[in-house]
Predict the structure.
Amino acid sequence: MTENHLAAREKLYAAILTLKTAEECRLFLDDLCTIKELDDLAQRFEVARLLDTGKNYVDISGETGASTATISRVGKCLRYGGGYRTVIERMKEAEK
């Protein structure tokens, strides 16, 4: 990845951090992503959420339509990454 690509990613992250409401986020993502891309992102997040609740791959695939390859990849990110875990834990706290 080139420095220009990395700089563009950093600008995107900064842009996302300026959003203040769910509606602003929806509007931005609707402009930024295709319907398919949004559906894919939403599916991956739902897979992460379901994995966090302890559901198995077969049940998750049935509920979301995600392939076992996608579920496995999301599971690895949930275990070893930080993004899904951070968001899921913050959402749990907000529900309390």
Notes: The CA atoms of residues 14 and 82 lie 18 Å apart. The chain is about 80% helix and 0% strand. The chain has two domains: 1-32, 34-96.
